[in-house]
Amino acid sequence: MSSNEAKSVTLIFQNRVCTLIQRFQSWVRLDSGNLSGGQQLAVKYFSVAVILFFAQIVFGLLAAIQFIAPGFLYEILDFNVNRMVHINAMVVWMLYGFMGSIYWLLEDESGSDIVGLKWGNLAFWVLTGAVTLVVLVYLFIQIGSGTDSSLWFINEGREYIEAPRWADIGIVAVMLVFFYNVVATFSKGKWSGIAGVLTLDLVALAGLYLAGMFYMTNITHDQYWWWWVIHLWVEATWEVLVGVIMAWSLMKLLGVRRKIVQTWLYIEVALMFGSGILGLGHHYFWIGTPEYWLTIGGFFSALEPIPLVAMVVHAVYDSGVHAFKTGNHPALAWIIAHAFGNFFGAGVWGFMHTLPQINLYTHGTQWSASHGHLAFFGAYATINIAFFYLAIQHWRGDVWMAGGSRNAWRWKWALGLLNAGVMGMTIALLIAGYEQSFIERAMEGSTWGGYFSAQNHPSFQNAMVWRLVWGLVTFAGLVLLIWDLLTIGKEETRKAEVIAQAEG
Amino acid sequence: MIEPVALKDFFITFFSSALIIMAGAAYALLFAWSKIHTNPRIKQCAYLSYIVLVIAVAELTRAANFSGYWLLISFAMVIGYFFAPIGIWHLCVKTHDDRTTITKRGEDR
């Protein structure tokens, strides 16, 4: 092909892509003129979050099939790769959702334009480019044994934080831009209690990630620091980040007074950090740390559900005393799903297997996966989805979004299918984990043979079939959710009711 | 030394742990509800939930072989889960600064 022909083919391709984008834009009828600079940046984060959510479910389904048919895609797309992409896509889409939510609320909360918006946009493209490249390397290049250079360019080998070292450094750089934007914008505008908690939490969030970059040859030391990132991110800093997002959205959705949400945010931070930090010890059973860590972990794990109990009391108080109105029913429904999911996933499913007397048997079995599925979905995915609905409403010009609207069945069914699907997977994995703990660990003493006995037991295999079935239900819910996000409020002409925020 | 759960106590350990959190939440919910609606039956149900929680804690203590300083966990749960909803309720009232509204609703009934 000559260079002229190549140029014309490229031009035709570019024109087609542009036409497709224009058609898509006219179909979804979203008006970016409704959005401020910070909100435009936020919706970029939300868009990538939804794509990664889709990838998470697809790769999860592939891995679920491989549990039942181990030969499926063998040496083409192996189980270890599917599982890794499934988990990392989940971690990264949560982060994209959180960052988008913070950028969304930043200008409103500070009363100022985002200071480093250009840097924020640049950081978004750098992060997205890096995530794409890392996933492509996982899928197509990650073959064969590793060398020292693999740590830098292929895979760092730490479960859940497998990003190679160059991407680790890139992530820290992007987080520094994010941190600068948050602090500088609040400094230029006005500080609030929410702003203070957010700033301190971002310091802890970035600081903990650095703990995951130590490389040690002693596996106990390595696991010790690895757990700092995994446990403290999820059970301390992410929970507080979600508290910040929740506090702001309660003011916007329900008109709750600032004084109330800020007071509860401080209490939540105290309870979360008070119980969550030392609850870290409940992970330390198998890694050779001193026994006092298990006692400390057990004690504080027993107290970890207290913030969730506080939430129950406060919710009853609010719903009993005040008549709530909201202008965005899907967002409120997802926030309610968050409250239930967080309580069951983190509270009930968490405490069932954290005490070392039982964790000896359950650690790292499908029991952990059962807890993980419900806790991550309940505590984090739900609140991000609530924010997607808040964003899409504003993007469409603050249109009416209520339970009785046209095509409201879509968000209701998406809500039902996603929650039922995740709950179904949780129960199926609980049964599989029970079998595994019982047969592999308790009866056969954690031997290699015990592992295979448990994997081949009919109860385990049946549970894994049911996990796949409920995974497909979850996938159906996700497809419906994406369809709904693209279309909800498109033909709506009524404006949403403005919820006045109570003073004080 | 930590003594692991016996094989026969597997299910009861999982079940009693889950029941502690569920009964704790039910007690908190019913306690808060009894403050809004002054119906003595709701309060009785709240205390019944708390009794379930105490039984679950006792069963977990037995099944998970708590002894020595491990018993502190049982005491922390029995005492902490009783007083937490009461304390949180008072915080709710203070933060909302809305006591008259609740009293009035209570008196209407």
UniProtKB/TrEMBL annotation, chain A:
This is Cbb3-type cytochrome c oxidase subunit I. The chain crosses the membrane at residues 45-73, 85-106, 122-143, 163-183, 195-216, 228-251, 263-286, 292-317, 329-352, 372-392, 413-434, 468-486. It comes from the Bacteria. Keywords: Membrane, Transmembrane, Transmembrane helix. InterPro entries: Cyt_c_oxase-like_su1_sf, Cyt_C_Oxase_1. GO terms for cellular component: membrane. Signal peptide: none annotated. One of its GO terms (biological process) is respiratory electron transport chain. One of its GO terms (molecular function) is cytochrome-c oxidase activity. Pfam families: COX1.
TrEMBL record, chain B:
Keywords: Membrane, Transmembrane, Transmembrane helix. The chain crosses the membrane at residues 12-33, 45-63, 69-92. This is Uncharacterized protein. It comes from Methylomarinum roseum.
